[in-house]
Amino acid sequence: MTLFLHYSVLSFFTLGMTVFFTGYPICSPMLVYVVYLGLDADFVPGLVLILIAGFVLDGLSGGVLGVYLFSFLWIFCMIRWLGGFLRATSPFFPFLAVLAGILLENLFTILSLASRTHGEGLFSDAFRFVALQVITAIIICPLLLTLFRKMQGFLFRQTRSKSTLSDFFSGRPM
Amino acid sequence: MFSRRFILFSVFFVLLSATLISLVLSGKHPRPVAQGAGSLVLTLVGPLQHGATKMTQWAGSLWRIYFDSVRQARENDFLRKELALAREKENEYLELALANERLRSFLNFREGEDREVLVAEIVGKDPSPWFKTFIVNRGRRDGVRPGLPVVVPDGIVGQVVEVAGRYAKVLLITDRMSGVDSLVQRTRARGVVKGSGASFCSFSYALRRYDIAEGDVVVSSGLDGIYPKGLRIGWVDGVIRSDDGIFQDVRIQPFVDFERIEEVMILLLTDEEDVDDMESQEEPLP
Question: Could you tell me which residue ranges the Rod shape-determining protein MreC beta-barrel core domain spans (chain B) (predicted)?
Fold first, then answer.
């Protein structure tokens, strides 16, 4: 995808998360996008894009600066690193990466909140949020990843990346 | 016996005579003659005429119905468009009326306030479920600075925590990191309204000996240096006095419906006003 398209997707998700579907404990589509960048994008443009995404979301959020930024950065680096010696084409790999992202995002939030508030009800909320985010990730993650790859294949006629939902679940390389 | 010419002349004269006699007689007595053959013709032809007339009328009406249908279809289309436009207008007027109502309540509140008030529109909300913040379309250029209280006529919304040129971030009182020094209006019992991260708040540090009951209104005390004294926050939704500890657990339901507000007011307090509010301390009544 061109840089313009990446920025359009970033803007679209940012608007979606701050204007239309705000504050719902669902799997963040931006996280899936970060996983997609980690899997398919080149390192430097991908890194720049996830830094922008993290910075924008941190700026719009009421939390401390770095919750989104560092969780995205960790996930991106983890995918690049693990992709070097693990079977990154496995259908569960991106899903596990999204799960790890959800856990990291919530962990960073809890750490930042615990140091600034009394922390009453933090863990019950964390459990509820993580559970809901994982459930929604089961639906959102394959859908969005397939959509991103389809879009990429359509725009650049990459026959290799003709992935479908059944590919995702059957374990065929996408 | 008779020649052909003779027969022709005879027939001619008979017919002429009959014609003349008939005309003369019918001119003197028209009815009796007509009642015979005329009535028979009428009886025989009348129904046919009637049928033909009906057929003509039916054909005519069919033609008219067709044209009427076409005209009505056009009219229908036109009226549908008119109706859609009218509905759109009605919706627009309804929105205007609602906005007018909101702004009127803002104006009434503003008239009651001796401070300068800045109306701002909410343009975005927090992307994380953990935090409760709004982005409003007023910033440093409008005189907004961190720490200014944000209210609506129903009560306190929160405070400004970050300011950019044209936009500012508002921390809601329901956020975990929010705290408002408050009083129970009826008994002047003092505590801190803290956000829970959900739609309600808690009234912390309220001593067990304080008289707090469900339905009591909680207002700001003005002692935190952010919110002026007497601004409405919420009402007591539940009180739990456990056997141990020195504080009671009080749950507050904010007056403001944070999911539905579209505009807010930023109170542009001066530093002197902040100091005045800090000085006006009040002792809680047991």
Answer: 122-267
- Comparing CB atoms, the residue among A18, A125, A129 nearest residue B124 is A18
CB-based contacts of B131, cutoff 8 Å, min separation 6? A61, A62, A63, B175, B176, B177, B197
Q: Which of A14, A63, A116 shows the shortest C-beta gap to B128? A: A63
The model's pLDDT over B222-248, given as tens digits with 9 standing for 90+, comes to 888 888 888 899 999 888 887 777 888
Partner residues linked to B220 by β-bridges: B182
CB contact under 8 A, A60 and B161: no
**Is residue B249 situated within a structural domain?**
yes
Give the model's pLDDT for residue B273. Answer: 56
Q: For every residue of B43-105, which 3-state class applies, written as one string?
A: HHHHHHHHHHHHHHHHHHHHHHHHHHHHHHHHHHHHHHHHHHHHHHHHHHHHHHHHHHHHHHH
Phi-psi region of B128 (alpha: psi -120 to 50; beta: other; left: phi over 0): beta
CATH number at residue B152: 2.40.10.340
pLDDT value for A45:
84
Q: Which residues span the domain enclosing B187?
A: 116-279
With vertex at residue A75, the alpha carbon angle to CA A71 and CA A77, rounded to the nearest 5 degrees, is 120
Q: Which residue of B has its CA nearest to A120?
A: B196
CB contact under 8 A, A22 and B130: no
